[in-house]
Batch of 4 targets.
Target 1
Amino acid sequence: MRLTALRCGLFLVSLLLAGCGFQPVYGTRAEGGSSPLLSQVEITPVPGRVGQLFKATLEDKLNPNAIDAPARYELTPVIQVQSIPISISRDGTASRFRVFYSTSFTLYDRDAGKKIHTGKIQRAGSYEVSNEADYSTFVAEQDAILRGLDELSHDYFLRISSILKKYESEQGQGV
């Protein structure tokens, strides 16, 4: 009896969500996976190698199908990466590092010529230091940086999606 009630409840919730206009922020869409709104965001160049990697990763998140749309919005991110030893071995050398990503950004509406939003996003990752193999430490550090940038770009994707969706709905209401 409980299982039938649970199934009926889930069915009713799914009907309510479908009827209220709920749309997932990300996932499979009829037009192939890219949001037309997010494809209008142009990301300004970010200095440094880490900045280049971050910009490329973020572009792939915002516009995975590389839709050629005119840039209505401009995103200006600034990123700082800092590695700090968090574990010291008995011989006094660092055996584990934490990588901190600190970013700030400004989102502009080019058409309206105004700033939409300013914000900060932070992330952290870590990697182990190998005392016997320098190359494995290098690979672990690079992998930690790439993982962190991917997570950071996902955070940006969610934040920018939310900001633009709210902004567009306010513009449609004449606010």
Target 2
Amino acid sequence: MAIFKRFLSNCTLILSHVLGGILCCHLNELKVIIMEGLEKLDRIDIRILYELQKNGRISNVELSERVHLSPSPCLTRVKRLQSAGYISGYAALINVAKLGGTLTVFTEVTLRNHRQTDFGRFLDGLQQVEEVMECHMMSGGYDFLLKFATNGIVDYQDTIDRLIERELGIDKYFSYVVLRSPIIRHHLPLERLFSI
């Protein structure tokens, strides 16, 4: 439990779409060490999750070789991890650069008020905006960090204007346009995070 708490205190994770594609294997909030009512995951389970998030199309035979199990027990573990919600889906990674011009913008948002209903109204409104790829609730000088994927600066500004017009409680926002993304990883370092 201490490892999980340390991990949560060091990371803010909301897994969703990323500009370079879609995470191969979404892990359900990484409730990996201990959850009430669920058994403890062992290092083989963590290794299976690690391999699947790197390659969601890996064959069961190859996966079983990588985690040092025979195919049948490996498949049983994968199915158990899926039914327990540790694996919430599989998707293709899209090379967005091949598709043409896109713009990624990170936006700091501060809300006018900080009641639970204000946060709820804001988040409900964001759910309807496809251009919002990630939303992180932050500590510090602003409330949320958003990641937008748009087809250009005009499209981004139109999206922000629509959000403001919907009166979601935005007090102020600051935009940071991404010029280049030299490092984009689509998988978490599970083996390092959980020392296996």
Target 3
Amino acid sequence: MNRISITIYFNFAGQEDVAPLLIASATRFYKEITLMLEIKKLNISQFESLFSTEESCLKFISEQKWSEGFICRKCGHTNFCKGKTEFSRRCTRCKSEESATANTIFHRCHIPITEALRMVYMVCHDPGISSYELSRQLEKRQMTCWKLKSKLMECIEKKGEIDLLYKE
């Protein structure tokens, strides 16, 4: 496998407080592309064994989301404690809590996270799959499948890859 090396230089003159956030974003973007290339290598049985439970899915999302460490979206603090729900984190300064799915493409997703990740897998392997086919295979409403697929396709159009952590 060929590797492409990209060096990014930042000029933070007068904006030192923003530097850690931008560096974390650039690193996260690189890891997300690598992650999606790894997911594409899995076959359906491997994927289903890895992501068969809600716990395994949330663990995967939280590991990806906070792979470079937790940074509070409200105050920028990096210290945290365990939140009220599983795999959520609470800022020790401002006490705001953030779930693993908050500010990701799974934010306010009303279908089980296992099915949402399976839909990501299916779209990743066949971006041309229709929302009707997704609906038939997942036994969900077509409009539900269309909404999540449109988020996934927006990620592909804007970044070239499906970015699990992308949220505008």
Target 4
Amino acid sequence: MKNIILIGMPGTGKSVVGRALAERLRYKFVDIDDLIVEAAREETLADVLRKRGVDGFLSLESTVAEELDAENTVIATGGSMVLSDKAMTHLKENGVAVWLETPFSQISARMPDDLSDRAIAAPADMTLRDIYEEREGLYAKYADLIVTSREGEHATAQQVEEVMRTVGVNL
């Protein structure tokens, strides 16, 4: 069985949808953000970003993903994972990438005014709109499937499962 790799902007619900989807499918669940915090021996993702800077954070995120060996697992990636071609290539070797596409207006409504509170790996002068525009094409590039986020993680998880079954992905 292949892994299911959830990609998308911060605030799309990759972690909560991932947990719900893993429960539905009886898969394991891994949140890359948790692995980053563990690898860095820090308390929070914001601590990792603050201490290592954007480049150091992105390097660690890529390394963690490249070293991940999983089967029958729903993997919630960080929003910046698509910035690493090596990491995405490795994850997709045994997985199907699903972009949880969410309109910018919804993402913006979910995010705090101060993006550093969300530990978003981007230069300080980038706005949320800049980040969205930079990454949108990369999400499309790596996505095997695109699922528009719905209201509530269980509804989105159900939609991901239905789309995957419809296109013939073995679950």
